[in-house]
Amino acid sequence: MSFLGKLFGGKKEEKGPTTHEAIQKLRETEELLLKKQEFLERKIEGEIQTARKNGTKNKRAAIAALKRKKRYEKQLTQIDGTLTQIEAQREALEGANTNAQVLNTMKEAANAMKLAHKDMCNDIMDDIAEQHDISREITDAISNNVAFPNDIDEDELERELEDYETSTASHRPLLKIASMTIYLHPRC
């Protein structure tokens, strides 16, 4: 609806009935026409009985009954035609409804397949990226001497080495027997 139509209270757009509502309405109409058919058949049978009963005694009443019977038969024929049209329309609508449901189901399945393939592809790519990250971490760990940290003080190592050198210089061999050397530690 246009802006001016809304502003001046134009005609509102009416939504048509849903497929389910239309099918239900057609079924209700069929039931109504079937009841009308039964009613007319009973009326026709009643007029036949009236015509037979008055056939010899009251010819005018018999002819009037036969005329009503003919009108009822004409109405019955019209109702038969209408019922045929309504049944055909209902069946076509039910078929269209079924086709629409099948198409919706197929569309949902196609969308699910697209999503599954997209998710599967994304999952595989995520797994590959994760494996690359793990591999990179392992390579970094191996190449960075994690077992031998670089936070050792060089000066401290040099002092320790000097201590070893001075302690070995103060050890003097006393006796050499065969291949055995005995050292005495000086008492400080």
Give an account of the 3D structure:
Residues 10-20 have a biased composition (Basic and acidic residues). By secondary structure, this protein is mostly helical. It is built from four helices and two strands, in the order ααααββ. The protein has helices at 3-7, 19-54, 59-143, 154-169; strands spanning 172-177, 180-184. The protein has a two-stranded antiparallel ribbon. α2 runs antiparallel to α3 (59-143). The mean pLDDT is 81.
- The level of helicity is over 70%
> How many strand elements?
2
Query: What is the terminal separation in angstroms?
Result: 112 Å
What is the top-level CATH class of the domain at 17-140? Mainly Alpha
What's the helix count?
4
Helix and strand succession? HHHHEE
Report strand order across the widest sheet.
1-2
Protein name: Charged multivesicular body protein 4b
Biased composition (Basic and acidic residues): 10-20
GO biological process, one term: late endosome to vacuole transport via multivesicular body sorting pathway
Main location: other
Give structural attributes.
single chain; 188 residues; mainly alpha; Helix Hairpins; two-stranded antiparallel ribbon; 76% helix; rod-shaped
